[in-house]
Amino acid sequence: RQVATMVHCVDEMTRDWREGAAIEVVPALRRMVLVCLTRILFNVDSAPDLHRVWQPLMRTLAYIAHSAWLV
Predict the structure, then answer these.
(1) Euclidean distance between CA atoms 34 and 46, whole angstroms
(2) What are all long-range contacts of 42-49, with beta carbons under 8 Å and residues at least 24 apart?
(3) pTM for the whole thing?
(4) 13, 20, 38, 51: which could form a disulfide with 46 (CB 3.0–4.6 Å)?
(5) DSSP assignment, residue 60?
C-alpha cells in the first residue's frame, strides 16, 4: 500500500513538469517527501496546505540544520 501511495504521490506532483523546463530540485523534492509522508503515515493530503505551512517549516528546518546532531 505504501509503495502505491508513493507512486501516486510522485505522479501527482510531477504531472505538470515539462521536458526541458527548469526545476528547483531541492524544494520540489522536499515538497514531494512531505506530501508522501503525510499520506503514508497519517492518511492526510497535505498538498493543499503546503502554501500555508511551507515558510514556517523551512524556518524550522534551517534552525535544526544548524544543530550539532546533524553534523
Answers:
(1) 8
(2) 47/12, 47/13
(3) 0.72
(4) 38
(5) H
Amino acid, res. 63:
Y
Amino acid at 19: E
Tell me the Ramachandran region of residue 17: left when phi exceeds 0, alpha when psi lies from -120 to 50, beta otherwise: beta
**Whole-Å CA distances, 33 to 20, 28, 29, 68:** 23, 9, 6, 24
* The C-alpha cell that represents 67 in the structure block: 544543530
- pLDDT averaged over 10-residue windows placed end to end, the chain, 71 residues: 89 90 89 90 91 89 69 45
Q: DSSP secondary-structure letter at 47?
A: G
The identity of residue 56, as a single letter, is P
Neighbouring CB atoms inside 10 A of 46's CB total 16
Q: Which residue has the cell 505522479?
A: 11
